[in-house]
Amino acid sequence: MKYVIIGASAAGLNAAQTLESLDSQGEITILSAEEVFPYSKMSLPYLLSNKVKKRDYLFLPHPSKAKLLLGQRVVNIDVERKKVETAQNKTFSYDKLLIATGAEPYVPDMELEGSPLVLTVRNLSDMDKLKDKLKKSDVKRVILSGAGLVNSEIADALAELNIPATFVIRSSRMLSQIVDEEGSEFIAERAIENGMELITGESITKVQEKGDHANVFLTSGKIIQGSCVVVGKGVRPSIDFLEKTPIKCDTGILVNEYLETSVKDVYAAGDVTETKDLISDEYEMHALWPVAMEQSRIAATNMVGYSWKYPKEVSRNIVNLFGEVVFTGGISKEDAYDVYKEKESRSYHKILVRDGKLVGFVFVGDVLNPGVYLAAMKNQWDISHLLNEAIKGALSYSMFKAPTREVVNI
């Protein structure tokens, strides 16, 4: 059997390892668009803050029997002939194909004037550019376009280096895609305590080079300065090369319960996919490392010939920002169903319950066992008798009398 994996992401590498273990005679080829060996993209902020001291620590091991080809950017898939075509004029045939190309930063329209001072932070080369700008510029302030997870983590890393940053936020608050207004207020307070500035209700319209720094023009006409601009407006699946194929996509690639696309023998896993959400019962993106690992394992198993079903997923995020743990899951941006909240001077807790089952939560502050909350939500365990413990962040597995339980990675 000949397997081709597009993308040397965590999902792609894990799929290759699974294929090796299940089909010792299989021929596995991994195509990577990048010129460097695979690395952990989720660890890039730690490289900036120097919590990761050496670049080498970011590199990921890849299966020894798989053929890893760097600098091979896929531009088309001929699903009839079962061939993958790259921009480097190479063609690779397959019996089974996995798409694991991940996601790429979304950069909104703005007048850049070809400025090298506008950066994203999705790749290792992006982080190298950011560190270089900070080193060379006399203006030791970074302008952050957007206040989602990526830029919030960059701000946290900058705070470790005592470098201030200014968030330019089109909406009225930070992390508006994963927390409610009250949760945002708590996080914003911690950000300001750590030297960050927040400008809300504004967008960047133009970035102009001025010597070794950038003049940044806002919609109001205000001009601010920084060593560079980091755009963190979220990511979108890397699916442009699928435009000429019959593979069905919405925001990402649509897959069935076996993680197979609309085209037979073509599978997808990781940040590039859309799968059914347990709470909303709609197709959603679940761009998370543990999700990518589980999807790639199941997809690869099915590529070999099994029929493993991928269960409905739940949205969640856990991140440490400005000394506080931010943990969200399910319905977290709004109030719905039965809502319970608890506020203290340095923490904010909220849970949402539907028919006695947990359907969402926001915790700004420590949670004793985050995995229990995800297991309770994924398994839809009854927590109606545990509301006090749940709102305190103190649920434990011993509190549930379930015949089986799923321990959930976060």
Unreliable stretches (pLDDT < 50, length at least 5) are: none
Full CATH superfamily name of the largest domain: FAD/NAD(P)-binding domain
Structural class call reads: alpha/beta
Q: Percent helix among the residues?
A: 10-25%
Shape: globular
Q: What quaternary form is this? A: single chain
| Domain module count | 3
Reported by name, the CATH topology of the largest domain is FAD/NAD(P)-binding domain
Radius of gyration: 22 Å
Instruction: Profile the largest sheet.
Output: 5 strands, parallel
Strand content: 25-35%
Distance from first to last alpha carbon: 34 Å
* Shape-level CATH architecture of the largest domain: 3-Layer(bba) Sandwich
Number of helices: 8
Top-tier CATH class of the largest domain: Alpha Beta
Mean pLDDT: 93
Side by side, the strands of the main sheet go: 3-2-1-7-19
User: How many beta-strand segments?
Assistant: 26
Produce a short descriptive summary.
With 410 residues, this protein is α/β, with parallel strands linked by helices. The chain has eight helices and 26 strands.
